[in-house]
Amino acid sequence: MTRPPARTGSAGAVYFSLLGPLTARLDGRELPLGPRKQRLVLATLLARPNTPVPVDVLTDAVWPDDPPRTARKNLQVYVSAARALLGPAGDDGRDRLVHGCGGYLLRIAEGELDTLRFGSLARAGRAEAGRGDLRSAARLLREALDLWEGPPLNDLRDSAGVAEEADRLEARCLTVYEDWAETEIELGRAAVAVDGLRDLVERHPLRERLRAAWMNSLHQSGRQAEALAVYDDYRQLMARELGLEPSPAMAALYRSMLGRGREARRPAAAREAVSAVALPAPTGAFTGRRDELRGLLDVLGGGEERVVVVSGPAGAGKSALAVRAAHLLADRFPDGRVQVRVRREDGTARGRAEVLAELGRLCGVTAGAAAAPSEGGRTDGGHGGTGAASGALADAWQEWLDRHRALVVLDDVPDEASVRGLLPRSGKCSVLVTARCQLAGLAPVHRIALPALADGEALELLGKLIGAGRLRTDPGAALRIVRACGSLPLAVEVSGMRLAVLRHLPLAEYAARLEDPSAALDELVAGDISVRHRIASGWQDLVDGDRWVLGRLAGLAEDGGFTLDRATEALGCGERAAIRAVESLIGAGAVTSPAGEVTAHAALYEVPRLFGLYAREREAPARTGVPTGPAHTGAPGAPAGTSLAPVAPDRAGVPVAPAHAGVPVHTASTHTGTSARTAVTAGPLIPG
Fold first, then answer.
1. Hey, which end of the chain has fewer CB within 10 Å, N or C?
2. What is the largest CA-CA distance in the chain?
3. Of 450, 478, 483, nearest to 464 (Cα)?
4. Is 449 exposed, middle or buried (0-12, 13-18, 19+ CB in 10 A)?
5. At what angle do helices 194-203 and 208-220 cross, to 10 degrees?
6. Which residue intervals of 303-386 are DSSP H helices?
7. Contact between residue 622 and residue 645 where contact means Cβ atoms under 8 Å apart
8. 166-171, Cβ contacts within 8 angstroms, sequence gap of 24 or more
9. Residue 330's closest CA among 257, 266, 277?
10. What's the rounded Cα separation, in Å, for the pair 399 and 317?
11. SS (HEC) of 226-294
């Protein structure tokens, strides 16, 4: 396999970007590029790297109509400023920008300019495609496209010379996008390219190769009528704008789709009957998670992994991501896609036999009387079966999984025991599991953890709900809002729903409310959707010792995180006990840790902001002796005034809270498991 080109820029080197607005960054910090004419000179030189640029070309770029008599002297000033910004080239100390008989030549390495990196990745991707390694080709081409941030040099296109270079760069980007889309279609993963192709066709309606790729991606995704409509629109546009017909190749593609549609309908009645698709509609506000979605589609679409676990705290958008992926994978799972929740509406765990019975009904799996739990069967949240009937249905379920190619989404799984026996042992079926905790006891599985949204993704989600125009009125306040929400998708969406109703409320005022630790959770309520209730459900999943530990650690997280040393001091225990306590919370999804490998002492751990606020809210009565009021119990009917004060260490050496008088302590067999009793939660806006 061709090794991906590596960036060669060293620390302290300037990195330039043309695939979008002209920018220069030094160690991640954006540099000022001076007045417009100076930027035009720099853009023209960067558009022709390592190639002499004649003085006349630079002059035309800066003064296209009537250059002043001092144009050459002014160019020298702009070039001198560029030299100061660029610094020396490489380690040899040579000037980057030199003047010769052919004009000005800018020396720049691949790792210092996005267009050079783009071209190198594109060439490597095409080489892999030529060798037949389509997966590597798609990955490299996608990596190249990720450098494309919009129309190249879109801030300087009023200069005819720069606009010409920008159009050339955009044409290169479009060609690579077409290469990537066609590769994904050939791999059978057309769904990942549909939306991007639609957007590009709208911007470049007469580009036939884009149209053809869009038609193929729609057809492969099972949207034949839309694919045929794309051709009809194109035919009418060509006739109206150019007086021409589509090319013979496009006409042949259209006819082949008509023929394939008839052939696909012919044997449909003869196929083995399987369940209809049982999936909720994808949420219209789904935003971001591009890397995680792409990873899901790659893993599940490849057919190599049978079980994928998507984990993250309550409100992270796990279910929305799973549903989105399931809809995009329609063509890969012809025998059905179904979703089953593994918790009841009140948050308690369903019995495995109850879940198995629902799967059987959805997928047409029967085993005589075992098709449903017996009248006296245990389906009240325990994980036991219902005797021989349940065992027969479990065997029939495994046989069905072995014979079909379907995708099963087991949503909001409380612990490993809830899904053992439901996962495929062989065959081509795949199971996508969503859970708040890591489900460490399941193996082998592919794992995807959902972090908080990036700032840009969170702002995009907020803008979908309140409108992009309102977002632009005070972008600083909008950023404060999403950060005060901890960039948790549920919290950002609830904020957007409130602001969509409270049109009079300035964004800055709402941001100030959310930044107040004592008021934030009270503000995050929209109708019957309450962020506090959702977080309360996750709190009830924790064993009692973990709740007390989280309450202590939450106080440390106010300044952005905590180290193991600070945790040891706050918990009043030994180092090993503190490590076990922190890692238990990581497994439960209540504490986040660095993505890369790092020693326990060097790691910076974090408690997500809203979970930290809730934990401190629950711990406050124990410190002050004031009972917890109903509004802050996190669940209707939760016991008030439960003491969280430590009285004795547990077996790990970490102090734990006793049960409140008359209130049972809910325990679990392991730290990765959950309590059998959980809080009542409001209906989720973003499931999971």
1. N
2. 98
3. 478
4. middle
5. 150
6. 318-328, 352-363
7. yes
8. 166/18, 166/47, 169/18, 169/19, 169/47, 169/115
9. 277
10. 32
11. HHHHHHHHHHHHHHHHCCCCCCHHHHHHHHHHHHHHHHHHCCHHHCCCCCCCECCCCCCCCCCCHHHHH
How far apart are the C-alpha atoms of 180 and 189, rounded to whole Å?
A: 11
pLDDT at 658: 40
Q: Kindly report the pTM of this predicted structure.
A: 0.55
Residue written as token pair 């008359």 = 662
Q: How many Å from the N-terminal Cα to the C-terminal Cα in the chain? A: 39
3-state SS, residue 354: helix
Question: In which residue are the tokens 């660029």 written?
Answer: 86
C-beta separation of 45 from 86 below 8 A: no
Q: What one-letter code names the amino acid at 45?
A: L
Tokens 């990196």 correspond to what residue? 117
The token pair at 518 is: 């004592």
Averaged pLDDT for residues 24-44: 86
Task: Identify residue 268 by its one-letter amino acid code.
Answer: A
The residue assigned the tokens 């599985």 is: 445
pLDDT tens sequence across 566-613: 999 989 999 999 999 999 999 888 888 887 778 877 888 889 999 999
What is the C-alpha to C-alpha distance for residues 430 and 301, in angstroms, rounded to an integer? Answer: 10
Cis peptide before 444 (omega within 30 of 0): yes
Ramachandran area for residue 387 (φ above 0: left; ψ -120 to 50: alpha; else beta): left
Cβ–Cβ under 8 Å, residues 156 and 40 = yes
Using 50, 70 and 90 to split pLDDT, how confident is the model at 259?
low
